[in-house]
TrEMBL record:
<dbReference type="GO" id="GO:0000287">
    <property type="term" value="F:magnesium ion binding"/>
</dbReference>
<dbReference type="InterPro" id="IPR022911">
    <property type="entry name" value="Phe_tRNA_ligase_alpha1_bac"/>
</dbReference>
<keyword id="KW-0479">Metal-binding</keyword>
<keyword id="KW-0067">ATP-binding</keyword>
<dbReference type="Pfam" id="PF02912">
    <property type="entry name" value="Phe_tRNA-synt_N"/>
</dbReference>
<dbReference type="InterPro" id="IPR045864">
    <property type="entry name" value="aa-tRNA-synth_II/BPL/LPL"/>
</dbReference>
<dbReference type="GO" id="GO:0000049">
    <property type="term" value="F:tRNA binding"/>
</dbReference>
<dbReference type="InterPro" id="IPR004188">
    <property type="entry name" value="Phe-tRNA_ligase_II_N"/>
</dbReference>
<dbReference type="InterPro" id="IPR010978">
    <property type="entry name" value="tRNA-bd_arm"/>
</dbReference>
<comment type="subunit">
    <text>Tetramer of two alpha and two beta subunits.</text>
</comment>
<protein>
    <recommendedName>
        <fullName>Phenylalanine--tRNA ligase alpha subunit</fullName>
        <ecNumber>6.1.1.20</ecNumber>
    </recommendedName>
</protein>
<dbReference type="Pfam" id="PF01409">
    <property type="entry name" value="tRNA-synt_2d"/>
</dbReference>
<feature type="domain" description="Aminoacyl-transfer RNA synthetases class-II family profile">
    <location>
        <begin position="104"/>
        <end position="329"/>
    </location>
</feature>
<dbReference type="GO" id="GO:0005737">
    <property type="term" value="C:cytoplasm"/>
</dbReference>
<keyword id="KW-0648">Protein biosynthesis</keyword>
<comment type="similarity">
    <text>Belongs to the class-II aminoacyl-tRNA synthetase family. Phe-tRNA synthetase alpha subunit type 1 subfamily.</text>
</comment>
<keyword id="KW-0436">Ligase</keyword>
Amino acid sequence: LRNKYLGQIEAATDEAALENVRIAALGKKGEISLQMRELGKMSPEERQVAGPALNALKADLNDALAGQKQRLSDTALENRLAGEWADVSLSPRPAHQGTLHPISKVTEEVMAIFAELGFGVAEGPQIENDWYNFDSLNIPPEHPSRQEMDTFYMSLPEGANRPPHVLRTHTSPVQVRHLEAHGAPCRIIAPGRVYRADYDQTHTPMFHQVEGLAIDTDISMANLKWTLEEFCRVFFEIDDIELRFRASHFPFTEPSAEVDIRCSWEGGQLKIGEGDDWLEILGSGMVHPQVLTNAGIDPKVYQGFAFGMGIDRITMLKYGIPDLRAFFDSDLRWLRHYGFSA
Ligand code: PHE
């Protein structure tokens, strides 16, 4: 009996099998339990021999069961550790990493360069009202530039008794908002999204501008010119960068100038600093006295310059990307090619 059960215990390969052996031997109806019950029917002499023998057998089997149980759980643990083994010296598997969109990268660069020149950063809402997007900037309701801007108007809830809001057509409203809130003197840039219903190789309905505004008591057009040239030198990393200041008109600046940069489009490739083409990158001028007045600044004391530069345009130029529309196609292959690691 002893050998039979000790053998079975040793042969048990998992806890369930072990438990079956225990029940067969020591369970309520187990073979040994039944024999214990037989002790009552024996003569005292017989019982004196069989009793201690059975008790010893029972104790031995219990020991053997406990021992085997421990061995089984040790092996289970060893197997688990072996299965979960990790080689920490292996090189990591390549994971797909996101990249910075060229526009984000360039916006950061622009902010950093102007920070060196002493310009802080301001922001304004993308959904603007008529006053900030137009009137405060000296663009009255019947002014032709309201039509020229291809404005997106927000639809009004039924019965609304107010002029509709617009998606801002430029970052210039931030000029007035910032001066109202912080007064003069000031030196800020305001990067952000702007919207116009327009679509071709160099125009998308949503694009990015960075507004610049410098207001103080002794600012002239010469400061504007130096600031823009200095910015372009650093940004494009070209020492003798060629800018073309073209006389222009904006209702909110007087005088006004548009600025182009020399480039070539040869063979579908856009290259900066060479060739006979010019790409317009910004509008600028001396802030109109009426705009200062609208922002609560006294134009007899203060004057200054402003500019609005196309971030997408300067990104195309810097990285030789000929079609603006690719910026917003969300083509992962394009984004991986032109993207920057964070
Ligand atoms: N807001 C003008 C535009 O979007 C650019 C501009 C800004 C011109 C500031 C002059 C001064 O075209």
